[in-house]
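name: query_chain
kind: protein
chains: 1
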Amino acid sequence: MEENDRLRKVTPEDNVGRSNFRMNSPGAEESYGSILKELGEGAKDLIQSEIFLLTEEFKATSQKVKKDLAEVVAFGTIMALSVFPLLAFFVIGLGNILDGRYWLSSLLVAVLCAGIGGPMAYRALKKIKEQDIDFSRTRRSLDRSAQTIQRKFDEVKVHAKGENHEAKHFH
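structure:
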């Protein structure tokens, strides 16, 4: 059972709010080297779990964005294939109505297309931008982990100052 626990993947939840480091009482004989070793191992585990979280979050986000982009490309292609003959129809028809002023009919059709296509393209781009691709879970987890590591280093400092202070009183 212990072998399986060691071989399983480290997940972000494994290290959230917990640490391998335990501060002993001031009279304990634990060396600073072993404390620093524990801190190093904890930091290594933390980095591995954060990398795992980042890659999983990136995979999930990129799959959703890929799907949306594929839809934009597919529907854009269909629209492009149907739009050119329709535009020619509008330009020629409007040109005939405007007594052969095809330049004016071309201008009017272009302005109309830009007025319709621009907002639709903006809406599709906005949909892609609204996807949660800011890795907020990874950022929150990193912030919690950084605070935990800072607390542990502060505990080591306080412990070290306490021992140095006690050593000065004995001399």
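note: The chain has five helices and no strands.
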